[in-house]
Amino acid sequence: MNFFRQWKDSGRLVGASLVVLGLAVGFTGGYAQGKANETNLIKSSFSPIKESGTSYTFVHPLLAYRTPEATELGEYASLKNAFQTKVNLATQSGASRVSVYFRDLEAGQWVGINQEDTYYPASLLKVPTMIAYYKEAEGNPYLLSDTISYDPRVMPEASFDAPSTLVAWRPYSIKELIKSMIVDSDNGATFTLLNRINSNYLHAVYVALGVPDPGDNSADYQISARTYALFFRVLYNGSYLSSNSSEQALKLLSQTTFRDGLDAGVPQGTVIAHKYGEHVLTQSGVASGVELSDCGIVYYPAHPYLLCVMASAPSEASAEKIIADISRAAYTATQQQYGDK
């Protein structure tokens, strides 16, 4: 074979090799680009919630993660369908709005229905008030033992506010007042605590989680189920308060006396750390309905989940039934997924 023929055949070989190499490079580049796009998607979908407003120089505490809804996963897709069915039935029966946020606290997966709609939180705001006191107490161990005399004049004049069970002018420790505020949802205890609170600590709770602070505008303040759930998430994770303070807070929330919402949808004896809030809707000064919310952690063995339900309905009884039905659907789905206790 002469040199020209050898060069020509080699050229074909080299050319073919270059084509293969080009395809390989193109495939590798496309794969790399695809992985980069996937990584960017993950980064945008899974974003950290880091504590804001701190004076730290060297640390930036991680509180929780924002994650995408688990609509592509079979068991969660069917759960969302079950929630949607309950919501549809509720609206057909007279409810104007219903929102649901469910989060598997071990798997980190969540689904929701209208979870970004906002409602009047009412007594739900007692939870961040409790968190603020526990945060302050971590720097002042004697704070919870301090006493305050109950002055009934701290109570606002509102016909729908339940009367306080506190005894006028009797001194109560801050620890006792927090328990009364959370367990019995006592407004006398709440306003006594708010009258004394270090507003910097309360404001810091909202700032840390990136939740708008109601401030002095609490009468018009509204919040969504998904956003409100953050307060329970940081308590469960022990990521804002210390583990000991978070434990104390959730223990109090597990003793709440309200039993007609989330509690009514689970078997008796199931531990739930939760808080409810009720806001009376009015038209021309006349009650026209209620917004009832119940949010908390259901301690299903080894697989606890967070459930927050907010409903706007014609009556308290109808709202309670909506929340109980949705709670029952969540418990049943968890039982089917993970088995009996």
Task: Note down, in words, how this protein is organized.
The structure is a single chain. The chain has nine helices and eleven strands. The chain is an alpha+beta fold and 341 residues long. The protein folds into two domains: 41 residues; 277 residues, 3-Layer(aba) Sandwich (Beta-lactamase). A hairpin with a 2-residue loop joins strand 9 and strand 10. The protein is globular. The N terminus is likely disordered.
State the low-pLDDT regions, or none: 1-28, 34-44
Beta content comes to 15-25%
Q: Strand pairing plus helix content: what structural class?
A: alpha+beta
N-to-C order of helices and strands: HEEHEEEHEEHHHEHHEEEH
The global form is globular
Name of the top-level CATH class of the largest domain: Alpha Beta
Number of strands: 11
Number of helices, where a helix is a run of at least 4 consecutive DSSP H or I residues = 9
Task: Tell me the distance between the termini.
Answer: 83 Å
Quick check: average pLDDT?
Answer: 86
Please tell me how large the radius of gyration is.
27 Å
The major sheet is characterized as: 5 strands, antiparallel
What fold name stands as the CATH topology of the largest domain? Beta-lactamase
CATH architecture assignment of the largest domain: 3-Layer(aba) Sandwich
> Strands across the major sheet, in which order?
4-3-11-10-9
CATH superfamily of the largest domain: DD-peptidase/beta-lactamase superfamily
Number of domains: 2
- Helix content percent band: 40-55%
